[in-house]
Write a structure and sequence with these properties.
The chain has 127 residues and is mainly α. It has helices spanning 9-24, 28-39, 42-54, 68-83, 94-110, 112-120.
Length: 127
């Protein structure tokens, strides 16, 4: 009798992503787009698994010198500026910002010049 080994890590990671997307108000199409980016980029996928397990960024992955934390801060800056609420209000959905940071990192890897220009405009409200 042969043994079947069932590895559920990707199923658990997908479930974690779906739950985060639901909590963050992201639709299924956006969630699936991010999942496909994870499946095609092992390094980004590992960063996401770390996030699910530790609720923080490992920051092992760097693109053009930028980490996921940099992408998160940039997303937070955009959030604060567009809502004109000051710095990091209580009602800010941090999970949405984290998911946006993963999407930004994937897009940074695909088009570094475009995102470098966006990042060079500054991080933080006090610039």
């Amino acid at each position: 009798m042969s043994q079947i080994v069932y590895d559920a890590r990707k199923i658990k990671a997908y479930d974690g992503l779906v739950r985060l997307c639901d909590y963050a108000g992201k639709d299924k199409a956006w969630c699936n787009e991010l999942w496909m980016l994870f499946l095609t980029d092992a390094e980004l996928y590992e960063e996401f698994v770390y996030y699910l397990e530790h609720h923080g960024f490992a920051d092992h992955m760097r693109i053009e010198g930028y980490s996921l934390t940099d992408c998160y801060v940039w997303q937070m800056e955009k959030y604060n500026l567009t809502r004109d609420l000051g710095k990091n209000p209580v009602d800010c959905n941090k999970e949405e910002l984290a998911l946006q940071a993963f999407m930004t990192m994937a897009r940074l890897k695909q088009n570094p010049e475009q995102y470098q220009q966006k990042f060079m405009r500054g991080f933080g409200l006090d610039r």
